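ARCHIVE CARD
SHELF: 3
SLOT: left
DATA:
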Amino acid sequence: MSTQPLADRLRPRNLDEYIGQRHLVGPDGIIRRMIESGKIASFILWGPPGVGKTTLARIIANTTKCPFFTLSAVTSGVKDVREVIERAQQEAGGMFSGGRPILFIDEIHRFSKSQQDSLLGAVENGTITLIGATTENPSFEVIRPLLSRAQVYTLRPLEEDDLRALLTRAVTVDEILSQSKVRIEETSALFRYAGGDARKLLNILDLLEQSTGLGEEIVINDRIITERLQENPQAYDKNGEMHYDIISAFIKSIRGSDPDAAVYWLARMIAGGEDPEFIARRMVILASEDVGLANPNAMLVANTTFDIIQKIGMPEGRIPLSECAIYLAQSPKSNSAYLAIDAALEEVERSGNLPVPLHLRNAPTALMKKLGYGKNYMYSHNYPGNFVRQQFRPDAIAGKEFWHPCSNPAEDVMVQRHNSRWGNVKGKQ
C-alpha cells in the first residue's frame, strides 16, 4: 500500500493528464504552443495554491527534454542561484543535452531584490529559461527588470468542471481509490471546501479514504464531507487557516460595506500569523478597485496604512489595519475606474495601435511641423474655464466611452462637470 499522498500519486506527467488552465494549455493556449514548438520563453506563473504551477513547469521540462533545475525561494540564497546557473551552463554545453536549461523557482516572490538581480544576466543571455511560480502579484513582488524579461501568465482556481474531472480521475486511475468501493452521492460540499484548489480536493479524498474502515465503502456526500472536515480542520490546510478563503471573505466584507465582518476576518488573519503587508497591500488594491472615484481619499488612507505597517510592524500595526478596514468598509463604493481601464484595454487589444490625431502630436522639429504635427491644437488654458471642446481620441473610436460613472455623490459631481463641458452625454451604470 503506497504511503504517498494522493496529490503526489496523481501528479500529471503530461498535458493530456493536466486539468484546468485551458486558456494556457488548451488547443490554442500559449504554453501549449511553446511546448509544441520546443521554444520555451522565460515566464512567471501567478495564481493561488493548488492550481498546477509546479506541475506545469515539470511537464514542460519533461516534454521538451530540457535540463531542469529547481530552487525554493524560501531556502535558497544568491550563492545557490549562482551555483545552479553554473551547473546549467555546463549542462547546456553537454553534447547530449536537450534544449536550454530550465530553472524553476518556487515562491519567487520571496526572493530579495539582490537574489532576483542575480538572475538577470543568465536570463538575458539565454543561459537559462526562467520559470517562476508565485501566489503574490508579480507587479509588487518581482523587480521590474526581471518582469521585462519574463511574461506573466495568470493561473485561475479550478472550475467546477475541472474539479469534477479531477474527482473522476482520482477514483478511476489512482492505485488505491480505483481498488476501493467509492460511491459519489453529492459533490457540492467537496467542491466548496476545495475552493478551486486541486491539492485541497485530493487531500480531502485522502482523508476520506484513510478514515474509512478497511473494506468499507467510501461515500462522498455533503454530510460526510462536512463532518470529517470539522473533525480534522488540519486535513486540508496545514496551517489551520484557509488563507485564500479568509482574504476573500475580508475583501468581500469591505466591498459589501460590513465593517464588523471586515474586522472579524482581519482578526482571523492576524491571529493566524498572516503577513500584515499582504493585508495592507490588498486594501490598497481594494481602495482603487472597489471604492475608487466614490471616495478618492480611500487610496490615500490605504497607501498610508501600507507605509505605516512597514514602519511599525506588529502587534501595533493591527490598529491602523483595523482603522483602514473600517474606513474602506464605510466608504461609498464605485468600480467605474476599474471597469474603465479594463474596457480600454479590451479596445486596445481589439483595435491595435490606432494613430494619434495629428493635432495632439508633439512637433519638436521643422519637418514635423510641416507634416501638420500639432496643427490646430487648442491649448485649454487659453479658453474660459480652462476648457475647449476638441477631439482627444483616435478617429476610429472618437465616440467610444470607457468610463461609465456609478451613482454616488462624488461621481454625480463629476458627471455634472463632464456634461457641462461636453454636453449632456455621460450616463451612469
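SLOT: right
DATA:
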Amino acid sequence: MKTWFIVVGILVVLAVVITIRVRYELKTLQRTDYILHTNKLPEGKQIKLAVISDLHNRHYGEKNGQLIEMIKEAKPDYILAAGDLITASNRKEIEPVMDLLVELSQVAPVYYSPGNHEKRIAEEKADFPGLEEKFRKGLEQTNAVYLENKSVALDDNTILAGLDIDYQFYDKLKRPSYELLDFQKNLQEADQKKFNILMAHSPKFFSTYAEAGYDLVFSGHYHGGAVRLPGIGGVISPQFVPFPKYSKGKYVLEKTTMLVSSGCGSHKVNLRLFNKPEVMVVEINGHCI
C-alpha cells in the first residue's frame, strides 16, 4: 500500500510539473536563427527574412507588442507569413491579425500565403458566414501582399512564391498525395537562374516542392509536433498524425532546403512541451562557387 502511495505521489508531482511547463511554453516566444548560403545570389549579397506561421489569432503582449518587437530587433529585409495566422472560427476576431500586419508592414515588406485555415473559410463559406469577406476586406486595409498561387520578384535575383493548395490536400482521413502535376496547376516550376523561395504551408509534400525546383521552402502546419522528444522529434500533429516526418527544423532534399516552423500559436491541440512557439530569422548569403 505504501508503495502505491509513493507511485501516485510521484505521478501527481510529475503531472503538476508538466502542466506548469506546458503553460509556460505556450506563452514563451523564442527566436530561431538560420544561416544559409547560395551561389544564385551575388557574392556579398545578403537577404534577411523573418518568418512566422500558425499564429491562430494568438496574442503576445498587448497588441502583439512582444511579437512585433522580436521581429523589429531582427531587422529583416522582408517578413513572411506562411499561413494560418487566423483560425477558421466564427468566435475568433480577425481585426487583431490585420492590426498586426499593419504594424509589421512598417518594419519591412510583408508577404502572406494561405494555410489550411485561410483556405477553409474560402471553401466552406456556409460554415463561416461572412468570415472570408471580412478577411479579404481586412487584408485590403493592410500593406501585406497576399500570395495565392502567385509569385513576385523580391529583387533581380530572388523570386518569392506563395502556394495555395486545395483544401482536400489537408484532409485528415484520406491524406491524399500532392504530385508535381498538382503543383503545376497551382504554380510554375522554379526559374533555375534565380534563387526561388516558396511559402508552402504543409511540409508534407516536400518532395514535390523539391521536384518543382525551389531552393528554399518555408512551412509550418504541424506546430512542431506538439510534444517533442530528444532523438525522435514531434510526437503528433494537429491533424493527429503520429510522429510527422517534417515537424520542425531544417530538412534538405537534393538542392532544396525546407525550414519548418513550430508556429506561433496552437489550435485544437493546445499543447506544447519542449517545443516553444517561434519566429524564424533566416539569413541568406550569396557566394561564388
